[in-house]
Inverse folding.
């Protein structure tokens, strides 16, 4: 299997209310690429959040005393801490300059996904989409309506991980692709019946696209051609480990 | 930026002592691909471990009483638990059918990376390479000696993660590529000076290749063309978070 990752750049600055489907279809077409139901489109959370109006001017945020206290301890902006707490249902760790929470969606990540990069020079924060799976489904439907191609869509974001340095892109939301591919019960080429292998395909798709759409690249969309993937109704939520199965809460 | 991921299949079964460099060069050439210092080669741990003789017949393993006790509790093969303990310097979690340890190298993963898939129908286990960075450097040198191309080499393995379901491929060892790309101090396209963004490029490279070289694909090598990456002397060890920076030990 050969796979191509194609950076889709040249999109305009995305404002609240922007029609992402229209803009992406226009840009993919202008770059001379075809539309096919076998393709996968990876879109960074940042432009999805902007289009959905999930942006907050920091000047409008009044930190609570708790946020102000912890911002001092963690050496973070108190308004960012305030937004992160509002976006969270549980604090996982607050220590050594790091605030890791579980968002209302169930994502475990730094600052609840609240981020000021690539918005407005640090004066505005983006929040994660309210429902990134719904965002992915809407984008998939919009692209299908305009082109006839039912592409898989993955909304990606950049997360840290325990134990390992550096950030990788993961799948926040998906549409038209099963995010997990189970090999359990399959027999490997050496005759062994696989017992525990479940591949996080959507996370690997997001990570692959991350190589193209890094922070400075102005390339928030990646078109993937040639990937054989399982179609299905699975969502980004399937990638969240249930609390009772999680040994690191 | 456009990136191509090319699956290199058709390699023979790898036996201890096999010359991986020779075999990969021959196969890449036979498939009609060129050699270039701008390429990245991703090789799964499994064939590296086999070539380096890091394989153990399970029939040769005598479990300790501790391994036998915990194998029963975890519903795992006692010989596998024994091997995992031998490969480990610290137990991170043993609970709910999962044994997560820190290997002597510092990797935190299930069963210390000991695995019976894709070897011999479940009767033989592979251990992680003793030094996957050295494996990567040797492979890079072997390919350069034969082709003149100084490709980056990443040795990958399939790891689970806290908080998220499913496995993804990560970089165990690297040569010729900086595994971490720091954007700290860079200014994003909106004028914000990035403060904490360090991208785990080698892990994203491994994850991308994982889309091509999944468990049943008989494709243990992936050639990546078109990726702009930082050359350097960084190693897979750089991706391991230092204990004092790790909030999830």
């Amino acid at each position: 299997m050969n796979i191509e990752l194609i950076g889709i750049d040249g999109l305009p600055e995305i404002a609240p209310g922007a029609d992402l489907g229209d803009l992406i279809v226009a840009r993919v077409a202008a770059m001379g690429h075809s539309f096919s139901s076998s393709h996968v489109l990876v879109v960074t959370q940042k432009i999805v959040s902007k289009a959905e109006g999930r942006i907050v001017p920091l000047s409008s945020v009044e930190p609570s005393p708790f946020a102000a206290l912890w911002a001092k301890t963690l050496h973070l902006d108190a308004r960012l801490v305030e937004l992160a707490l509002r976006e969270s249902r549980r604090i996982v760790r607050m220590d050594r300059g790091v605030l890791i929470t579980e968002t209302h969606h169930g994502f475990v990540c730094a600052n609840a996904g609240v981020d000021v990069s690539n918005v407005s020079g640090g004066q505005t924060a983006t929040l994660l989409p309210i429902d990134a799976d719904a965002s992915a489904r809407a984008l998939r439907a919009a692209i299908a309506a305009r082109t006839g191609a039912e592409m898989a869509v993955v909304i990606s974001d950049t997360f840290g991980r325990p134990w390992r340095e550096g950030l990788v892109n993961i799948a926040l939301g998906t549409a038209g692709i099963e995010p997990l591919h189970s090999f359990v019960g399959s027999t490997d080429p050496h005759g062994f019946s696989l017992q525990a292998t479940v591949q996080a395909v959507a996370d690997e798709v997001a990570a692959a696209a991350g190589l193209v759409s890094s922070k400075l690249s102005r390339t928030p969309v990646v078109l993937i051609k040639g990937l054989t993937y399982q179609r299905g109704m699975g969502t980004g939520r399937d990638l969240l480990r249930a609390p009772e199965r999680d040994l690191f809460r």
Chain A touches chain B through 71 residues (CB under 8 Å). Chain A has a mean pLDDT of 94.
